[in-house]
Amino acid sequence: MPELPEVETVRVGLVHLLGANAVIARVQLTRADLRLPIPPRLPARLRGQPIRAVRRRAKYLLFETPAATLLCHLGMTGTWRLAPPGDERAHDHCYLHLGDGRRLAFRDPRRFGLLDLIEPGAEARHPALAGLGPEPLDHDAFSAAYLAARCAGRRTAIKPLIMDQGVVVGVGNIYAAEALHRAGIRPSRRVGTLSRPRLAGLVEAIRVVLAEAILAGGSTISDFRQAGGASGYFQSAFRVYDRAGQPCLACGTTLRGRVLGGRSTVWCPRCQS
DNA sequence: CGGGTTACCTGACGGC
DNA sequence: TGCCGTCAGGTAACCC
Fold first, then answer.
1. Annotated catalytic sites of A, by residue?
2. What's the pLDDT score for residue A227?
3. Residue lying closest to nucleotide C9, CA to C1'
């Protein structure tokens, strides 16, 4: 489901739900594995721990406690919600019982998500986090010069490149398509053929589209919900995603679609080169 | 090495 | 109505 804007929206929602003094009274797992095994020691390690912060790195959520950090990836279908008594649903895999009696539920029907434990100080070494590229909204780390360096000597297409979490984090299939349209770059364009100014334009387009989507509360397609249950509304701002065969909103040309790198891809043959 | 393909899982949707 | 094929926002292990 979620790319950076959706994960950030969930994070902010969780921060608001949890407030300042939230405590994990008890962790209840209803299965032992998602995409990977959930560490059996996880409930015991987090029991009684105060949540000092909920942070985001790439598409990961990090619930920070003094004893350990709970790492969560939403995969395609992961959601967190407040689950009042009686609100147990199929595919609820984990409940965080809070000190004030409330309960947070992690639900993930496809189980592509991840729940793991990070020991204090070990965050940079965690396999899921160690190889990640810079945050796209970090202007210093994610620059045209940086992207040009990552493109150098490579012959891959630009769309899979910007979706590579080792190059830049947080960009998935939707926002890759949207950013490339805004930058006027064809998704199949070989990275080595893009000039520095065009890469600069792409860096800017990625930042702008992600920032706009965060402001809109993310995109709600299928069942994505903010942690509080509200819908995002950036999906109404999609210019190309899921619009193959429809007119380009900029020039009216029929948008084209094809599979690129195994992912559905849409672009305007006139605006994007 | 890099890039394309496949697998992981369930649910929703369209066609017949 | 219901069955079947296809597709889905992500990631990682494969194979050439």
1. 2-3, 59, 263
2. 62
3. A1
Q: What's the pLDDT band for A1 if we cut at 50, 70, 90?
A: low
Euclidean distance between the first and final Cα of chain A, in Å?
Answer: 28
> Do A17 and A91 meet the contact criterion of CB atoms below 8 Å apart?
no
Which protein residue lies nearest to nucleotide B1, measured between its Cα and the C1' atom? Answer: A154
Give the residue ranges of DSSP H helices in chain A. 4-18, 42-46, 127-130, 144-151, 158-163, 173-183, 196-215
Q: Give the residue from A37, A225, A39 showing the smallest Cα distance to A113.
A: A37
Strand C: which positions are within 7 A of a protein CB?
7-12
Q: Which residues of A113-125 are buried (b: 16+ CB within 10 A; e: fewer)?
A: bbbbbbeeeebee
Q: What is the pTM of this model?
A: 0.96
A179 touches strand C (CB under 7 A): no
Residues A245-263 have pLDDT tens digits of 999 999 999 999 999 988 9
